[in-house]
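Journal club prep — side note

Before the paper discussion, L.F. wants everyone to see what a predicted structure for a comparable chain looks like in token form. Sequence:
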Amino acid sequence: MKKITRRIMTVMLSMMMVFALSISAFAEGMTQEQAMNIALGDAGLAASDVIGLKVEADTEDGVFEVDFTNSKKTEYDYEISAADGTILEKSVEYKVARSKSKKKIGKKAAQKKVAKASGIEYSVVSKGSCKYKKSRKGGKYEIKFRSGGCKYEYEILASNGKVLEYDWELIR
């Protein structure tokens, strides 16, 4: 019984230490307002330009999660380091009118659209994967690649090459 009690106490003490360390990262690092301003600045928006602004502290991971939508119904999700304000992950989802057209721009054209949208050379984007996915709302290309210590994922409307969604995250 004493061994079990010791183990439980050891586990509880370890959990308390991890929690204390994650809380101290927030205490020494940023505020929720600073995290919000970093996300809004990256998106090129002011607080008055967005709806549904939500900032949550994830003490376990030492990050702030910032979510909001602009007037064009574009959804933004950020994960920002509480220690230094680095954007660790970013996801943007556009509200694009989908077409039921069976027309496809082709994989190469989709990769070129991603290269232009991301500012990353086509030669880098084309080394990643590009898969066509068919759906009731029209087809899309899912393009994944790595560049500059980040992992990127794009969804492109197959009929016209418009970006539906993109995500990137730092490779940790």
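L.F.'s comment for the group: DSSP finds four helices and eight strands in the chain. Keep this in mind when we get to the figures.
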